[in-house]
């Protein structure tokens, strides 16, 4: 059965996005290097003057028999070489030569790496409508900034998870956008609460829902397939776009268990098992073209690559390209050449092998972290839900059980939170208070308030990560934090 076309959602574009015109200079680039054409129309420096003839990198060889974190030996390495000009290297296919990657142009990204990512997206997500597209970005932070400029205007309101990445919130605030919190629990957004919000909404409804839906930052939550389907149906009913910010999507892992035999048996061992184990993305449910997916290599290859990509319906992404032409121009040429060379060397099978290796590594890191929390944190006042994706875990602490809660702290959980933060610093461990990630926006006019969850009234949480330090330091750090909590509570 053929796929349908996306629904026309151009009415949701911002005035800025609607007003952007195609650049005639950029349009003229289609004639660049056309046979028989003398191109005198652009300020392009001659590539002969680029002082880089070849870039070489040693990379691990797929399928990574010694694991993805092992030191690369001469036997286990591959060498990728990118030359200034294609004719200098006849051995490698589908390379982005330096004379192209270091030149102006190709705002959408170079064809070779974009084609690889489109094949990857089709393999993993199988976007269910036919006129979808994919363009390059310089990572999800920039993608989010461009998304806001494409859809909202100063004074508009958008929906955001009750706790969200503080930099993403600040990006919205700096543009004068109101971020309205959507209630969530340990498993992510509550569809029933979102439905009540939208049914009771006063004034123009929000155009966007921003969600970090897998391995959520900061809570570590992962929204189930059932909840995603319910939230997508609300997007169709109330005519808004879902922005799925998914840098942690491939850092999904097995359920936490203390049983060593189960830990060993639960591992995925094949490409099919790996893909089937992934929670369905919003873009894989999208039949109307109302999902914009922000993807990135930051958490699976390296943050400093500054390369990401945006997936969505072609008509909407064309407006992103107009923004990029006059802002980022394009991602780094070195990044595109080297990352493309790595992906072409590995192929889709090798890249999946790498991702499977990451899954195993992060599952082990998560297990070590939660084992330490179990061992060192006082269960009298601390609860937690082991994450099943991402880099973060949270520990929820009951403020009402603090001996000074009703006296010195005036029944204010934030004062208890700060006391533990300060005590943990004294003990030599830094974890981040959950209040730093609280979504505080208010719409104009104000919306009806949803009933407060009494279970959360006197609790707060801290965000930790198992990604940033070696495992021995991770355990030592959690022991220090557990000690800080015990000191504060007199345990």
TrEMBL record:
Domain of life from the UniProt record: Eukaryota
Chemical reaction(s) catalysed: an aromatic L-alpha-amino acid + 2-oxoglutarate = an aromatic oxo-acid + L-glutamate
Region: Disordered, residue numbers: 1-22
Keyword rRNA processing belongs to the record: no
Its EC number(s): 2.6.1.57
CC annotations in GO: cytoplasm
Requisite cofactors: pyridoxal 5'-phosphate
Official protein name in the record: aromatic-amino-acid transaminase
Biological source species: Debaryomyces fabryi
